[in-house]
Task: structure prediction
Amino acid sequence: MEVEYSGDTMTLNMGPQHPSTHGVLRLELKTDGEVVADAKPHIGYLHRCFEKHAENVEYPGVVPFTDRMDYCAAMNNELGYVLAVEKLLGIKVNNRVRCLRVIMAELNRIASHLIAAGTYGNDIGSFTPFLHCFRDRERILDLFEESCGARLLYNYNWVGGLMCDVKPGFEDRVIEFVDYFEPLVADLNRLLSHNYIFIKRTSNVGILPPDVAVNYGVTGPNLRGSGVKFDVRRNEPYLGYEEFDFEIPVGKGEFGPVGSCYDRYMVRIWEVMECCKIIRQAVKKLTPGDVQETIPKRIKPPAGDVYMRSECPRGELGFYIVSDGSLKPYRVKVKSPCFTALSALPYMARGAMIADIIAIIGSIDIVLGEIDR
Amino acid sequence: MESIRQLLQIVPRFGDLPQAFQVFLALLISCAVILAVALVCVLYLVWMERKVSAHMQDRLGPMYVGGWHGWAQTIADALKLLLKEDIIPAQADKILYRIAPVLVFVAAFAAMVVLPFGERSIVTDLNIGVLYVVAITSLSVVGIIMAGWASNNKYALYGGMRGAAQIVSYEIPSAVAIMTVVIMVGSLSMQDIVRAQLGGIHRWFLFRNPFTFFAFFVYFICSLAEVNRTPFDIPEAESELVAGYHTEYSGMRFAFFYLAEYVNMIVVAGVAATLFLGGWSQALPVSWVPNQLIPGPVMFTFKVLLLIFVQMWLRWALPRLRVDQLMYVCWKVMLPFALVLLLGSGFLAVYWK
Result:
């Protein structure tokens, strides 16, 4: 968008205490009236030294820290770390562990996307979908709670297995939830996604063309919203994702250019439906077994390094672990999907209006806990 | 007011007082009555809003305070606001900061004196009642700009500027929509407008002719914008501007803005009910039922509540527009449409009667 600025700009500090910067993000906005000439994100308000902490605890002890990175999708975070350590150790887990991990990861993906969609509605000014989404998310948290006792930070995926097996009848309750949830997506669409005002507010805003998205290293739903069909679960399968039948939704640009806020939002809604499909298949594949049989007594990987990437709800989450052969990792480096998404924010924000900035931040669905770590 | 003056005649030696003093006293009492009514109404509208939003969102809303469905919740909230510390930012323009909430509240409340609650329940039936409402409600814009400027906060400034642009713009189509009715009636007095609609639901301007039918919707949409309700709540858009022009206010001064918002809702719903839904007139034709089957004030309150419910319903169902979209809707959709309606209703008034 070509905008002429009068040159008389005002600096507006948005955040870190702002209702819709999704955490403690601070944006330094150069505004000319309602139009934003430049946006500069400042991060670090939630920095908790995760990577340094990880160097000082033993391998299994890192898992609870990974929960606290992206607290909206803790299962997926610990899964990423656990997979990396297992790759380093060369552990092959049995079918039950694999299927349960897939079920948990996909359930958490639904929960995370529900937060994304709900808070996005809230950002655009519609408060009701937010609570409808949280109502459905509660059901997922109930399932997690009965499995591992926690509702937000689970510590469920352990290196080589799971913390404990699920309770009897878990499969039925998961299917019951999926049956309950699938029709409700249509409700959400009627209330929010297909609302005329919502479409007008989001469909021509925050355009991220595919080539720019790739150059910025944007991944996950944000990249797929720009029309690039890339998903780690499909392109570099782990946990046996290649055996599952699911679509990878990409932004279609129904109401404007491809890569708009609306596309990114809709990709998440479609993905939720795909998660339901995966969960149904994973429940069918679930076989009896011992979920702790491959957990090593002592985790002492050989010296070397490993990089493992997995598809977390916010994009490609990579763990780079260097081992010096001791009980503690020498270095743990996280490739954060939110960080790359946020780096593309100034590009999208230029020439937008203040209300659009909120729409853009909401659409890239960042969690500051993961950016700052 | 007249009925209160007559009531006062039973007070011994009231009639001996000077004429002007009698009028003044009656006016004072009726204003006090309407203030009390407005405040109690606001308390219950807040409660109603919380219940409406809660049930739309699959919640219960307040359930504990007072026992039955949390009926005393807003009373407790109001008491809390009264007791809270009143904070004035150090760099704020102290005088303007203090005046602003009062001005906004007075502007909202002053419009209530011409609302015809019933055939005789009206504080004063000005012969320019409609004009008075349009004029006095726009006074709140001054208060909003004052609050936005005096707070010395960038978000408040944005809120104040947005509020000014929005309210001033939307006043034009809403006033034009009001004029369609005024042309049909030929009077600006609220009571005359209600009397023109007596005789049943088919006499209401909403159903009288197509021009006033659409004018109702134009007025209702514009009135939402005038009182900053969703989908037009951009001056206080909480996800963008924190709380807009009242970001820095706390305690009772904040409560004044809050009260003003709800009093404004009553006013715009009351004006819409008076102009288009027959005010205190009965829904059924006189020949069908005895005239005063339902008292006028009850009828009026029912219509106002209905419109307020629609406002709440819209607020919790719709997202918010953007500033430029808001202006587009006002100048390029509402205003031309309202002007066409005005023209059509003018033709009807001249050639039909």
